[in-house]
Amino acid sequence: xxxxxxxxxxxxxxxxxxxxxxxxxxxxxxxxxxxxxxxxxxxxxxxxxxxxxxxxxxxxxxxxxxxxxxxxxxxxxxxxxxxxxxxxxxxxxxxxxxxxxxxxxxxxxxxxxxxxxxxxxxxxxxxxxxxxxxxxxxxxxxxxxxxxxxxxxxxxxxxxxxxxxxxxxxxxxxxxxxxxxxxxxxxxxxxxxxxxxxxxxxxxxxxxxxxxxxxxxxxxxxxxxxxxxxxxxxxxxxxxxxxxxxxxxxxxxxxxxxxxxx
Length: 262
Prior knowledge:
- This protein is mostly helical.
- It has helices at residues 36-56, 65-86, 94-109, 125-146, 148-156, 166-213, 221-258.
- The longest helix is centred in the last third of the chain and has 48 residues, at 166-213.
């Protein structure tokens, strides 16, 4: 499934997944090469790069407004996530967590931007890739600190576990730490973005359907559009929250891989 339909005046009703393609924007581009999803990702990356480059250009000791905003974002992630979850050692991961947080937040917000209305994270491939990157990082730093077998032991045998519980505990810990963590990390973000997007589509399409139905049903259409507006504000909060949760859990996993005992 390539995503929920986006309502635009120039297309028929109901919209189809073909309306999500942006290939026609660039003449000569192969059909399907640039969809709303890839366009959103490129746009998000461009926004983030320009935001930080522009904010820290000619940085001053007393920050300007734009520099203060960028420093606040970085400081929030550095102090509120990296340092709080990992400790002083987490500062070296602050750049990654800030990039992760801002990328997820901006791509999530694409879901409520008129004309796009389709977050890349409502497609499982993008959250899965972000989860894999976090998975590689926290295993890498764990192996680097404890050694391969030391990290494997720390990951599979919690401290204080009696030896006779090993046959039960080791498979469960192995499944949780090496397989389920990236899966749940990706599915949590994907499910929230996909569900929120579908809720907005239901209210918007419901309002259009009621409006076209005529009669007494038409009177209910403003309520459906009003609910779409209300849910857009709620979805805005959820989008930022999910960016925070994904980044926070990534920090928790890194902290666990660096801990002497799990």
